[in-house]
Amino acid sequence: MTGQTPVISKVNCLVVDDEVPAQEILKKFISSIDSLHLSGICNNAIEALNLMQHQPVDLLFLDIHMPQLSGTEFVRSLKNPPKIIFTTAYNNFAVEAFELEAVDYLVKPIPFTRFVKAVNKVLSVSSPAVEENTGHRPESYPEDQLPFMYFRSDRKMLKVFLKDIQYIESMKDYLKVVTTTGQIITKQALASLQEMLPDGEFIRIHRSYIVSVSKIESYAQEKILLNNVELPVGKIYRLEVNRQLKYFPQL
Question: What pTM was computed for the model?
Fold first, then answer.
C-alpha cells in the first residue's frame, strides 16, 4: 500500500469511574477535544474489562477507588494495558500510579486546563517520534501526522502544530503563542507548557520566553533573532542556551 497517506484515527477513550458526576465531567472534557473519541463509560473495572475485549481502547481515564477491583489492581491485571490517566480524589497514590507507567495522575475536582495538559502528553506520545539521535523530525510525514498541541482560547480548543510555533511569551497568567500564521492568547503558566514541549526542539531563553530552535535566525550571548523579532536571553538561562545552541563567546 505504498504511496498512500495513512488515515489517522482518533484516540479511543474509556472512562472507568463509579461516580456519575466524575463520569459526566470527563465526558464533557473528552467531547471538547477533536482528537479524542469516547468509546464508553464503565462503573467498575469488570465492566471495563468486558468492553475492552470487544472494542479497541487507546486511553483509560481510570479511577483508583472502585468496588470489586481498584484501578491500580485492574492495570496490573492487564497483559497489554493502554495508556493510563488516573483520576482520583486522593493524592497519595501518585507513586504507585507512575510505577505503573501512567501518563498522568489527575486529582479531583479536575480543572479543564489540567485535563488538557494530561491529554497533550498522550497526543505527543501518539505522534511520530523525533528521529532518533538527530533532534529533527523527518520531513516526509504527512501534515496530519505531525506533533501538535491544543490551546484553549476564545472558549474553544485550537489545534496548533509544533512546527508552526515560533515563540511563546509569558504575560502574567496568560501566554501568547506566536505561530507562522498568527498568535493565540491562552491562560496557562509558561513552566507547565515547557514540560509538555519536546526537548531539543524548544528552548527557554528567558523567564518570559520559550523559542523554537528551528526558527532561530541568529543568536548571541544576550539576544536571539527569529522572524525579524529580537528576544532577550536572560542571564540565568545563558549557560543552557549556549550549551544547546553550541555557542561559545570569545573570551
Answer: 0.56
Q: Which domains does the chain have, with CATH numbers?
A: 11-125 (3.40.50.2300), 144-245 (2.40.50.1020)
Residue 100 has a CB neighbour count (10 Å cut-off) of 16
CB atoms within 10 A of CB 26: 23
Tens of pLDDT, residues 176-196: 999 999 999 998 888 888 877
Give the model confidence (pLDDT) of 27-64 as tens digits.
999 998 888 999 999 999 999 999 999 889 999 999 99
**CA of 85: how far to CAs of 48, 74, 172, in Å?**
15, 13, 29
Reading the block at residue 2, the C-alpha cell is 505504498
105-145 pLDDT, tens digit per residue, is 898 889 888 898 888 888 865 543 333 333 334 444 445 45
How many whole angstroms separate alpha carbon 188 and alpha carbon 57?
30
